[in-house]
């Protein structure tokens, strides 16, 4: 990568009387993750094995060819140094010349190789050309530590049918910019948490989405400049359960919607159907004719609370997701004939399932 640069510089020297004494002009430092933020922020941890890539913007950055008449010509780049809570000079192999107005550098961190943990604070950045001349930019870089998580609480417990408030407490949260927060579990896609409020640099209030699959999740917070922290085994999602469910009738024709009764036999810690404000949501887990290869949750309509042990609802065998009434007798958007299970969500936050083996059959 450096040989083409050396060749170009040799050409430049051949056409110039001298390159001595060129004074660079440093105008700014940019973190590509936050190009519009000044002064640039960078984390003193993370960044992979090479650290965080930053860009130096200015003019008259002037490398100098070395050993040009040998078999191993090289290029000496401008020196980049930081001064502030600690002083640090970037290693030469962490600097990259793009053009006289742009250089890039990889800033080492606690987790890079080699490692270097800069104390948090404001830093002056200086660029010195090999043949002399230095430009400094005060408060060009703000080094920040990664966030820390000290506790996670779900004040009202987890609810299947609604978002569950989650409170995260710790240090180093960014109240001036929203972080990315994701739940992670082996073998599943990351689950971002979209609704959140950074109350302060020690408290975040967010929500776990409804119907998040039960299980234990890690939680990762990533601030916009790249700082991140992962809490393994952070939360375990569990929901209250309804009792044993059954359905009657257990079948209906594909060309007509069918009214059914769901019975909930609750005992012990199992929950009966609730009269709490909200709706009872009932889904048939089945494919529709427009996409027979994909199993989806099809909502039943006209769900009515009958008692703490019974709900009445209509299976949309003919209509599927289509608007009712369906006038085409072939029911083009209807449910594919077969036997399917149910998911029932109660306004209390409890849920229950009825497996396909004892579920509802849509007859051809």
At a glance:
The protein is mostly beta strands and 364 residues long. It is built from one helix and 29 strands. It folds into three domains: 143 residues, Immunoglobulin-like, CATH 2.60.40; 90 residues, Sandwich (Immunoglobulin-like); 120 residues, Immunoglobulins (Immunoglobulin-like, Sandwich), CATH 2.60.40.
What would the keywords be for this entry?
single chain; 364 residues; mainly beta; Immunoglobulin-like; 3 domains; six-stranded mixed sheet; 1 helix; 4% helix; 48% strand; elongated
List strands and helices in order, with pairings:
Elements: H1 2-14, E1 25-30, E2 40-43, E3 52-59, E4 64-66, E5 74-76, E6 79-83, E7 88-89, E8 95-99, E9 102-107, E10 121-128, E11 134-144, E12 148-153, E13 164-171, E14 180-184, E15 191-192, E16 196-200, E17 203-208, E18 215-222, E19 228-237, E20 244-248, E21 251-253, E22 258-265, E23 281-288, E24 291-299, E25 301-307, E26 310-315, E27 338-345, E28 351-354, E29 360-363
Parallel strand pairs: 2-11, 21-29
Antiparallel strand pairs: 1-3, 3-9, 4-5, 6-7, 6-10, 8-9, 10-11, 12-13, 13-17, 14-15, 14-18, 16-17, 18-19, 20-22, 22-26, 23-24, 23-27, 25-26, 27-28, 27-29
Residue runs with pLDDT of under 50 for 5 or more positions: 9-19
- Mean pLDDT, to the nearest integer, reads 92
- Give the total of domains: 3
Tally of separate helices: 1
Compressed to H and E, one letter per element, the order equals HEEEEEEEEEEEEEEEEEEEEEEEEEEEEE
Question: At the third CATH level, what is the topology name of the largest domain?
Answer: Immunoglobulin-like
- Tell me the span between the first and last alpha carbons: 68 Å
Q: Could you say which overall geometry the principal axes of the C-alpha atoms support?
A: elongated
What's the oligomerization state?
single chain
Protein name: Lipoprotein
Organism: Corallococcus coralloides (strain ATCC 25202 / DSM 2259 / NBRC 100086 / M2) (Myxococcus coralloides)
InterPro entries: Ig-like_fold, Ig_E-set
